[in-house]
Amino acid sequence: MSALLSSEFRRFLARDLLLVLVTAALAGIAMAGVVAAAKSHPLSAGDLAQAEQQAADDLRRCMAGDMFTPRDLPPGERLEKFCRTNIRPENYYGSQPLALRDLPNWIQGVSFILFVGSLVLGASFVGAEWHAGSMMTLLTWEPRRLRVLVAKVLACTVTIFVLAVGLLILLSLTMTLVAATRGTTSGLPDGWFGSVAGSVLRSAAAASLASALGLALAMIGRNTAAAMGVTFGYLAIVEGLIRALRPGWQKWLLGDNLSVFIMGRGVGFAGRSLGGAALVLLLYAGILLLAAGASFRARDVS
Question: Are 90 and 181 in contact (CB under 8 A)?
């Protein structure tokens, strides 16, 4: 098994598409840093002091109940927490410099691009072998098909996870540099670093999951284009129809659970926790991989 795993890791890393997408990602990170630096304008010490004073004055008024009544608060929200969350110095800046506190949101914002790229890589990893006819050669060397599938899934998902973490860390360092030189690093909330780390790991895990989904669909359809068409057709059309016609089923949709998982909190619908969303995603991936294994084992390769 170790020889098979090593072979599949080398095969995945040698793919031209992987090099192209990683190069495009690096170029995108560099471009994002340049654009962010050009558009962000650092504040002077006087601007910062004025914003902090205005925020402190309004925070005292808010805490005293002069700005909001209990009816203005979300259900179950305490006045103190609501005031501290919504009244911050950055809300009073004359201009809006790049704020480092928003880094978790930036990471979550690029997660969809990672998801799509990983889906393409996973699908092409298997689809290209079917198209080139090299799957038969591989099975001549290793005829145990389930072992082949497991090795391919591990090579694909582990590599994608590591690459995604590396790219997101590079993006974070780039934006941190821009914020430190052209924006602001003040106002970091408690638990900010944990929020950044969680966003990186969840986005990378979602990318790894996408590669497994693409691989499973390509194994079933024996074609990269079929896997991509099924995925985007389902997300764009089927799930849209379900949201419109059966809103009660929304908490079981792939897209909604993916949003909850990446953002780390319930969005779009009530009643689905982060852990619940993760379980739903793993369930769908497991079902597709089992179907891919059954198809691969039963169907003729030629």
Answer: no
Residue 99's DSSP bridge partners are 184
121 contacts 16 by C-beta, under 8 angstroms:
no
pLDDT tens, position by position, 66-110: 777 777 777 767 777 777 777 777 666 655 677 788 899 899 989
Structure tokens at 57: 């004055």
Domain check: are 16 and 65 in the same one? Answer: no
Question: What total of structural domains would you count in the chain?
Answer: 2
Residue type, 70: P
Query: For residues 281 and 258, is the Cβ–Cβ distance under 8 A?
Result: yes
Residue 180 belongs to domain spanning: 2-40+98-298
Say whether both 86 and 232 belong to one domain: no
Report pTM: 0.81
* Helix-helix angle 192-221:254-263, to 10 degrees: 150
Q: How far is CA 177 from each of CA 170, 184, 226, rounded to the nearest angstrom?
A: 11, 10, 42
